[in-house]
Amino acid sequence: MDLTSYAELAVLLVNAAEALDSLEGTRRLLTEAGRGDQAARLTRADLAILRELRRELAAVFAAAAGRDEDAAVGRLNALLVRHPVRPQISGHDGQGWHLHLTEDGRPCEEYAAGAVMGLTALVTELGVDRLGLCRAAGCHRAYLDTSSNRSRRYCSERCATRANVAAYRARRRTLSGHSS
After folding, report:
1. Angle subtended by helix axes 3-14 and 44-65, to nearest 10
2. Residues contacting residue 62 through CB under 8 Å, at least 6 positions apart
3. Whole-number mean pLDDT of the chain?
4. Which CATH superfamily is domain 3-178 in?
5. Can you give the chain as a three-state secondary structure string?
6. Range of lowest pLDDT (23-27, 43-47, 92-96)
7. 162 close to 153: Cβ distance less than 8 angstroms
8. Which pLDDT score, from 0 to 100, does residue 179 have?
9. Can you give the pTM of this predicted structure?
10. Spatial contact of 123 and 72, defined as CB atoms under 8 Å apart
């Protein structure tokens, strides 16, 4: 079972503040995340719970980015209590038997249990320092660092490139200022 894909649900939700402004936006988000079954059953009550979950998960990422492991783990433990996991064996789409974390609750409960358990498994297996917030100026989107050398610092290639270009230009300005 690949719990990283479940952890990606947490990242997707943290980075999707605008999508949670409407029921349709949230349905699109869930569909893009491969959760079309949840999207079809989504209600306004689910939307409010997902907004709260987003705030709670963002706090986990903020604690991890601030190198406060105890706070990040404490927040994850509290989320595990509020969103218990119900594992279930599943076989679909031509795949063999595999484990799903939950399949029989409200859409927000299913999403929450998967996202929280995936994030928890990633933290316990790889460490809290694998959760990050983008270091590009003005971005602050969440990401998972699954690199082998723990080197990820940006949410995307786009942000990494922008930050590198900005640093290069700053160095050039400094050098040209010293040569006159």
Report:
1. 100
2. 133
3. 90
4. Jann2411-like domain (1.10.3300.10)
5. CCHHHHHHHHHHHHCCCCHHHCHHHHHHHHHHCCCHHHHHHCCHHHHHHHHHHHHHHHHHHHHHHCCCHHHHHHHHHHHHHHCCCCCEEECCCCCCCEEECCCCCCHHHHHHHHHHHHHHHHHHHHCHHHEEECCCCCCCCEEECCCCCCCCCCCCHHHHHHHHHHHHHHHHHHHHHHCC
6. 92-96
7. no
8. 56
9. 0.86
10. yes
Confidence band (pLDDT; 50, 70, 90) for 104?
A: low
Spatial contact of 87 and 101, defined as CB atoms under 8 Å apart: yes
Which amino acid makes up residue 156? S
HEC-encoded secondary structure of 90-110: ECCCCCCCEEECCCCCCHHHH
Residue 107: name the closest of 36, 17, 14 by CA. Answer: 36
Tokens 């038997």 locate to: 97
Here the tokens at position 106 are: 């409200």
